[in-house]
Design a protein that fits this description.
The protein has helices at about 5-25, 40-65, 70-95, 100-130, 135-160. With about 160 residues, it is mainly alpha-helical. The model has no long low-confidence stretch (mean pLDDT about 85).
Length: about 160
């Protein structure tokens, strides 16, 4: 006959195994962050404000780079952070689950943010050229491309505003 200690120990082990198996089913498998947006108008406005702050910061830093107030390495660090922030905004808008009526506006603004990110990449190229003491003709060509990217971004932002429901 089994002792009381043996039966109790068996019961404790059995309860532990059953409890552990239930935990496997209770813990969520997908732990990615999900954004739930209900006011797409306000969400887009907030995103535009955040992007405007990034653009202002990067423009000020680029001006300081061109005026020789900061080093190329300092600017590149700032640009990498700004680019990362814009990528986060792009991902946030992409994953927002915009309704069909808001899709066109969101897609246009995502395009505008991508153009701004391309602009930042071009400014990093200039910072590297300054670092390598390359002639100003190359820099002037890239500055023209930056102005074009800014214009394209503004155009896409206007299209986004026009296509709002």
């Amino acid at each position: 006959m089994a002792s009381k200690k043996g039966v109790a120990l068996t019961m404790v082990i059995l309860v532990g195994v059953v409890a552990a198996s239930f935990l496997v089913y209770l813990l969520p498998e997908d732990t990615t962050m999900k954004i739930s947006v209900s006011d797409f108008d306000k969400h887009l406005d907030i995103t535009k404000e955040r992007a405007a702050m990034e653009v202002t910061g990067i423009n000020d830093s680029f001006k300081k780079l061109m005026d020789d107030e900061i080093s190329s390495d300092e600017y590149i660090s700032i640009a990498e952070i700004s680019s990362s922030q814009l990528n986060s905004l792009i991902i946030e808008l992409t994953n927002s689950g915009a309704t069909q009526e808001w899709t066109e506006s969101y897609v246009n603004y995502i395009g505008a943010l991508k153009k701004l990110n391309d602009k930042i990449i071009e400014t990093v190229v200039i910072a590297n050229l300054i670092n390598d003491d390359i002639n100003s003709n190359s820099i002037n060509e890239i500055l023209a491309k930056i102005k074009q990217l800014e214009a394209e971004s503004l155009d896409l932002t206007k299209k986004s505003d026009i296509s709002r429901p």
